[in-house]
Amino acid sequence: MNKYSIFPISLMANILSGHDKLNILIFHRVHPEIDPLFPGEITREEFDRKIEVISRAYNVLPLDYAVKKLQSGELPRKAVSITFDDGYADNHDIALPILEKWNVSATFFIATGFIDGGIMWNDRIIESIRLSNRQELDLSLLGLGRINICNNENKRHSIKNIIEKIKYLEPDEREKHIIYIENESGASLPDNIMMTSDMIKNLHKAGMKIGAHTVTHPILANIDIKQAKNEIEQSKNALNDLLGEDIDIFAYPNGKPGTDYNKQHPALLRETGFNLAVSTCSSCATRQDDVFQLPRQTPWDKNPYYFGARMALGYRKRCNSLL
After folding, report:
1. pLDDT for the residue numbered 3
2. What DSSP element (H or E) covers 306?
3. Angle, nearest 10°, between helix axes 121-130 and 171-185?
4. In the chain, which ranges are continuous DSSP H helix?
5. How far apart, in whole angstroms, are the C-alpha atoms of residue 65 and residue 244?
6. Cβ-based neighbours of 108, under 8 Å, separated by 6 or more
7. pLDDT of residue 323
8. What confidence category does residue 213 fall into, taking pLDDT thresholds of 50, 70 and 90?
9. What is the pLDDT averaged over residues 282-309?
10. Are 101 and 111 in contact (CB under 8 A)?
11. Which of 33, 128, 172, 222 could form a disulfide bond with 185, CB atoms 3.0-4.6 angstroms apart?
């Protein structure tokens, strides 16, 4: 993308943005090239283009600093903060060099139970099916029937259906389903999908912000408050110990208000020593929003002009589903 294609995007941002709104963006993985199983997910090249647009057309600020400026009424126009959820290794290997190339900061929310060789529950399903040499899996005992995985399209469809059906199960029950799928697939799962401790330290040394994202990425609304407290506290403590400083920002797993977390959880974060938290309610943050439920949106558009329009119009959206 050359400098001239930035102009209409910057113009839209200038017209539609204001001093009182912060656009917080969510990213997850950044693939080195197109993933044949999920071709719509962002690649290194696409991420580079997006960050170029963002760095040239917007004021990119560290999340905690931006929120302070938002609360004080001193936020600059076209303010954007970049966040990553979960703690994937490609955030370090691929995203970090691009962020440094364009001289922008980002915040990385880490699910600490998967550091150093772990793998998240959804990725266990994805990789079990991706790497299976079988044509179909018999998941009848799980109530999922026999699923066809003979090609990437069928695999993608099956993964989507399985994740949707088991995401909100009670954690122990969901774990039984996942173990069954792993065994049925016959696949050996990778141990390098998530960050190592050294990667997190490198992000921190590079000036990136680190936040907590629980230990095992549970749906907080599906576990009791004692378990939720342990997940929150232990993730904070693990990062405190790793980085030698107090970690005081948090992202709710999955992040939908009223579905994935409830009114107890913002209060619990305050008690635990956090200063702000982000959800996945899609809009821009304003001074009126609870700093423990700040909305974020996902910049998924591949076309740079659609992406610019979505970013600009995001400054006019309001999230009505916060608790």
Report:
1. 46
2. helix 304-314
3. 20
4. 6-16, 44-57, 63-72, 89-90, 96-101, 121-130, 152-166, 171-185, 197-205, 225-243, 264-272, 304-314
5. 20
6. 83, 84, 87, 91, 200, 203, 208, 209, 210, 211
7. 60
8. very high
9. 84
10. no
11. 128
Q: Structure tokens of 290?
A: 């609870």
Total structural domains within the chain: 2
Residue 137: strand pairing partners:
147
Residues contacting 96, CB < 8 A, separation 6+? 202, 203, 206, 208
Distance CA 220, CA 141 (A): 27
pTM: 0.93
Looking at the domain assignment, is residue 97 inside a domain? yes
pLDDT 10s digits, 86-101: 999 999 999 999 999 9
Q: How far apart are CA 15 and CA 107, in angstroms?
A: 27
Total residue count of the chain as it appears in this document: 323
**Residue 320 falls within a domain, yes or no?**
no
Structure tokens of 181?
Answer: 């799928």
Give the domain-ending residue among 170, 185, 200. Answer: 185
Q: What is the mean pLDDT of residues 175-203?
A: 97
**Domain range enclosing 131:** 121-185
d(CA 315, CA 24): 10
Within 10 angstroms of residue 169's Cβ, the number of other Cβ atoms is: 15
According to DSSP, the β-strands at 209-212 and 276-278 are unpaired
pLDDT tens-digit series, residues 20-42: 889 999 999 999 999 999 999 99
